[in-house]
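Following up on my earlier thread - several people asked me to post the actual chain instead of describing it. Fair enough. Here it is, all 277 residues.
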Amino acid sequence: MIEMFSYSFMQRAIIVGLLVSLCSALLGVSLVLRRFSMIGDGLSHVGFGALAVATIFSFSPLAFTIPVVVIAAILILRINEKSKIGSDSAIALISSSSLAIGVMVISYVKGTNTDINNFLFGSLLAVNKTDAVFSIILSLAVLLSYILLYPRLYVVTFDPVFARSASIKADRYTTLLAILSALTIVLGMRMLGSLLISALIIFPCLSAKRVATTYKGVTILSAVISLSAFMIGITISYNAGTPVGASIVIVHLAIFIALTIFSFIKEYYQQKRLLKE
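Reply from S.P.:
Thanks for posting it. Predicted structure:
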């Protein structure tokens, strides 16, 4: 652990990774509860296509990818609201097309040194000093926005009808939630990969729901699980030489299985106690 913190690239990766993990966990609660969790998966594929184009044409990766993914997030919501195409179909349409474009661009350009695995599964070395500073600023902005808008996001998540009756524009906050999620996905995908970054949005909430029973409890536990899984996963990756994204997701899977077993055992003993009474 001490040796791991001595390298500058690891320090950058840990700081950015912790911030992205926290943002993903907090936003993931609202997305999962509103059944929008697949938006994360779709936007990560859009990010892959945009990042591939940015790299091949020497654009700034974050400066190019962020607007593209944000536009895609808004487009997915608009298709879902105003088209006969369902939300799952809209996500599949945009994400698969973006993934195909990214693969085609990388394979078409001859003589490129781009490793497609870095896009799909991430790389610790992908986070340079400039990207780290930019990522930290944007992550803090996402966290601040979430904290300030927490009450309204809570209402919009559980009761959009009441939100409208209380003059809270649910559609506007749903769009904002998608935009914040898009920013978080772009910030984390270079390190964790486009195929795995969406797991940071889905797993913490699902794991927390195994044991927590309130929105606040799920939110806090999701954050704790996400941060813990990241640190365990990146430590495993550093010491065992495994891909960082895959290592973190496997830790999340282990936590989910453990908490699921714990919830079953807890429920069994509660039912047994009620029968005795």
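The mean pLDDT is 81. That should answer part of your original question.
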